[in-house]
Amino acid sequence: MIEAERRLLANALLDFSNQRFVLLSEACIPLFNFSTIYTYLMNSTQTFVEAYDLQGNVGRGRYSPKMRPLIRLSQWRKGSQWFQIDRALALQIVSDQHYFPVFKKYCNPQCYSDEHYLPTLVSIKFWKRNSNRTLTWVDWSRGGPHPSRYIRTDVTVDFLNSIRYGSTCEYNGKITNICHLFARKFTPHALDRLLRFAPKLMQFN
Fold first, then answer.
1. What percentage of the chain's residues is helix, strand, coil (to nearest 5)?
2. 200 within 8 A of 193, measured Cβ to Cβ
């Protein structure tokens, strides 16, 4: 998975006009219109890679001691694979010849590299410019190995607004209630209601 992400970034970096890079899936939706998302990303002084130290089998339990001495257990991080980064960090990721080979060799099938490589790399080397959060909202409150999935009947104006403005965070040194620009996991059957609400909710033309 990380190899695929690095190839995507490398290809996108060929266009010098690309300054911000966002990884999304087919189950993600935008929460705001294009101009709002573009302004938020381009004006940010930070990158958005979630990283945290998690005890237990799905956190530190995935670490391999064979990664020492380059990566110590205390440096091991987990986070969302849905990142939003700038050109400088993207260049560092695709040119990484130190940490990536270690992950490729020792992050075995029980270790999901897309949940650990970037969080660990950024926490070790690029933490000063990282916000330590993702801009993609996901609901893990129901438990289990996968996040909640939302179908057509789940999509309401109130629900979407609760995601859009339902939390607080720091952006460029100030507190804001716009903390997520995207959300998942939405099924294809939810598309018709999303399209119905989007023009008014997100001020699409």
1. 45, 10, 45
2. no
For 21, the 3-state DSSP assignment is strand
Question: Is the predicted pLDDT of residue 161 greater than 80, yes or no?
Answer: yes
Q: What is the pLDDT of residues 88-128, one digit of tens each?
A: 999 999 999 999 999 999 998 889 999 999 999 999 999 99
Backbone angles phi, psi at 59, to 5 degrees: -120, -100
C-alpha distances in Å from residue 57, one per residue of 33, 61, 112, 131: 39, 4, 12, 26
Q: What are phi and psi of 100, to 5 degrees?
A: -60, -45
Distance CA(89)–CA(142), nearest Å, equals 33
Run of H or E including 136: strand 136-137
CA dihedral 179, 7, 130, 62 (to 10 degrees): 90
Q: Which residues contact 47 (CB under 8 A, 6 or more apart)?
A: 83, 84, 85, 86, 89, 122, 126, 129, 130, 131
Band of the pLDDT at 200, cuts 50, 70, 90?
Answer: confident
| Strand duo 174-176 + 136-137: pairing | unpaired
Q: Tell me how far apart the alpha carbons of residues 25 and 87 are, in angstroms, rounded to a whole number.
A: 20
**Average pLDDT over the chain, rounded to whole?**
94
